[in-house]
Amino acid sequence: MKRTIRVVAFLLALVSVGIIGGSVWTLYRTSGLSLSLCNISAAGSPKEVALETYIQMHADELQRPAGTDNTPVTFVVQPGETAASVAQRLQEAGLISDAELFRRYLQYKGMDAGLEAGTYTLRQTMTIPEIAEALQTGLRPERVVTIREGLRLEEIAAAVAAQTGIAEADFIALVTRGWRETDLKDYPFLADLPPGTTLEGYLFPETYRLPEEMTAYDVVARMLATFDARVTEEIRLGAANQGLTVHQLVTLASLVEREAVVPEERPVIAGVFLNRLRNGWLLNADPTVQYALGYDEKTGKWWRRLYFDELGVNSLADIDHPYNTYRYPGLPPGPICSPGLASIQASAFPAQTDYFYFIADCHKNDGSHLFARTEEEHNANYASCGGTVP
Hints:
Elements: H1 2-16, H2 22-31, H3 46-57, H4 59-62, E1 73-77, H5 83-92, H6 99-109, E2 118-122, H7 128-134, E3 142-146, H8 153-164, H9 168-176, E4 207-211, H10 216-230, H11 233-241, H12 246-259, H13 266-278, H14 286-293, H15 308-311, H16 341-348, E5 357-360, E6 369-372, H17 375-384
Antiparallel strand pairs: 1-2, 3-4, 5-6
Helix pairs in contact: 1-2, 1-3, 3-6, 5-6, 8-9, 11-16, 12-13, 12-16, 13-16
């Protein structure tokens, strides 16, 4: 075997420097190799000939799956990821047995530049050519499903139903209770969720390329796999440095997602909430009250307006609900929506400021906020926007 490998290496070396044709054929015949090197002296650069030779030598391996387990495996290709990186991760996941062969096959077929970022369902029983095709653009019937940031479970269920035909009730049943009865519960980041917790906050907002025929389980599995891939160890370490568990991180990020409009303000808003938490203040976050109130039959919306007269209260603190941060201290029991990556990163790496207050900037009216360090500054900002300070 070692002799064969040495001969092959020598053959490729000869090809790479242009010593081809009769010399290679003579060496091939005397080596005792049974693999056919077809048209080795055909037209083509030395590099192309060497690559073709390599592929022919590994023809049997290309058709040999990495394993016998036919269980679907979710695999995420990151935007801009190289073929070498994808190949290495496929091997680490047990989906292929030779990363170098996979990379060379992509190069040989001209497929290395066509890897499509997205989340895919692969199996150990697939061959290298089958996996390579699965990762190419437009090579399989599929649906594109877009879930935007800041939606709560019910809104995500409606969006999935509208784009796939999956019944909202089936999706809701899975993400509220049913997930604990499947292997979805095995994700480490879900291990410490309190009993009865739903998957609120963990259904990662993204544009997904999914099989044309899919179930609620298929969609949720993709969302959780994407969460696991995007919320990196670096982010989780950043959260730990803030004294936050992953669940607390996602909960905080969900508040930031609903509050922030201008991207650069996300870390600042996260910093304000953390300042309040560390000083024992109420968070006083309007979106938590909106989440607590739920669906508004009059407007047909989930995130209702917080007008005291419409709600029949003198203050938001009058609304008794565990998610109401005007009434109960600390973070709410769980996320109020699915935050995007930017809000998650902002919560793991918040801006270090001494701000404790913010209100919408009525002067710019562009979604930005006026921040304040003291109650006096906050009252001045409030008054400048026409508010009456008590």
